[in-house]
């Protein structure tokens, strides 16, 4: 099986490190910047929940600054998009060049709308919904820290492929320790991850703390209330979600599992990068306005993160 990972930031690097252990996979990892250059020159180191090293002899590391390797075009059975949400259209265009005629793509980016963008580029029949609750961050170029074990959900989208088409990838994810699970309702799976992101990312970023600190009663109350605003919007859009009590427990369990993780929004703010607030809390605000639902907590978090961008 041939698999490509596009957008190898923290999460993409984690998946690359774990999938590289599966000998039946030929793996292409496409990165950029100093992290991508370090991987291409010296390999990738995994620390945290598990440790290991991926040499550039075991995996084909390619660089966006150079372009896709011509020999890889049209050869990939699966392409995993793990970049920022605003990179999705570009990464989907790369996926279109890499996939075989009957290959499939899944997008692990945060937020709402990325799966639809992949479908627009690749066709609904080639795209799975996908989410991940594994915690990862990069302490330095060429190193990824696995900060918390979670699960990987691969799900069906309207008009998209089903479980039989996903099964080979589910099998190798299981072997790699990525705890995969199939969902017949990929839209609901994406929403459940979005609800976690809107609750955790902006509050942890503003407080400057690791995920586990949000278990403090005051911060947890704010996070859960933000999540409930999003859940109201999702239910208005007829998305099938668990009860509020189940959502609360899921939030608590994810915070426990990723207690030492530095969320992506906090990393982005500290490194002067654009955050994904527009496809997370801002998307909740906009969808709430269309549905006639007030989302004041999400609106406040958007304003505060946006103000930090402007500094």
Which characteristics define this entry?
311 residues, alpha/beta, Rossmann fold, 2 domains
Structural notes for this entry:
- It is a single chain.
- By secondary structure, this protein is of the alpha/beta class.
- The protein is 46% helix and 21% strand.
- It is built from eleven helices and twelve strands.
- The strands form two sheets. An eight-stranded mixed β-sheet has the order 5-2-1-6-7-8-11-12, sandwiched between helices. It has a four-stranded mixed β-sheet with strand order 4-3-10-9.
- β9 and β10 form a beta hairpin.
- The protein starts with a strand and ends with a helix.
- The mean pLDDT is 94.
Task: Give a concise summary.
The chain is α/β, with parallel strands linked by helices and 311 residues long. The protein contains 11 helices and 12 strands. The chain has helices spanning 10-19, 33-42, 88-98, 114-122, 163-176, 186-207, 217-236, 244-257, 264-270, 281-291, 296-310, and strands spanning 2-6, 26-31, 44-48, 52-54, 60-63, 76-81, 99-107, 127-132, 135-140, 143-148, 152-155, 180-183.
The shape is globular
Number of strands: 12
Low-confidence stretches: none
Overall mean pLDDT: 94
Distance between the termini: 47 Å
Q: What percent of residues adopt helix (DSSP H or I)? A: 40-55%
Strand content: 15-25%
Q: Which assembly state applies to the chains in this document? A: single chain
In the CATH scheme, the class of the largest domain would be Alpha Beta
């Amino acid at each position: 099986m041939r698999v490509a990972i596009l957008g190898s930031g923290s999460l993409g690097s984690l998946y690359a490190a774990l999938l590289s252990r599966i000998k039946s996979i030929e793996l292409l990892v496409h990165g950029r910047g100093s992290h991508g250059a370090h991987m291409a020159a010296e390999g990738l180191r995994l620390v945290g929940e598990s440790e290991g090293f991926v040499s550039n002899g075991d995996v084909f590391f390619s660089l966006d600054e150079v372009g896709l390797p011509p020999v890889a075009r049209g050869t990939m059975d699966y392409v995993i998009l793990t970049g920022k949400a605003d990179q999705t259209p570009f990464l989907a265009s790369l996926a279109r060049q890499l996939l075989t005629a009957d290959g499939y793509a899944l997008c692990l980016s945060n937020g709402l709308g990325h799966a639809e963008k992949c479908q627009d580029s690749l066709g609904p029949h080639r795209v799975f919904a996908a989410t991940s609750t594994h915690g990862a961050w990069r302490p330095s170029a060429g190193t990824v820290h696995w900060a918390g074990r979670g699960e990987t959900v691969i799900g069906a989208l309207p008009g998209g492929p089903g479980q039989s088409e996903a099964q080979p990838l589910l099998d190798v994810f299981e072997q790699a320790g990525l705890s995969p699970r199939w969902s017949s309702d990929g839209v609901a799976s994406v929403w459940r991850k979005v609800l976690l992101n809107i609750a955790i990312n902006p509050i942890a970023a503003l407080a400057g703390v690791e995920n586990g600190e949000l278990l403090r009663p005051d911060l947890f109350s704010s996070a859960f209330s933000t999540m409930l605003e999003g859940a109201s919007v999702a239910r208005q859009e007829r998305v099938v979600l668990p009860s509020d009590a189940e959502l609360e427990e899921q939030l608590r369990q994810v915070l426990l599992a990723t207690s030492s993780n530095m969320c992506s929004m906090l990393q982005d703010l500290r490194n002067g990068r654009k955050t994904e607030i527009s496809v997370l809390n801002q998307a909740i605000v906009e969808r709430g306005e269309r549905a006639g639902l007030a989302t004041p907590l999400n609106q406040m978090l958007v304003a505060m993160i946006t103000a930090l961008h402007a500094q």
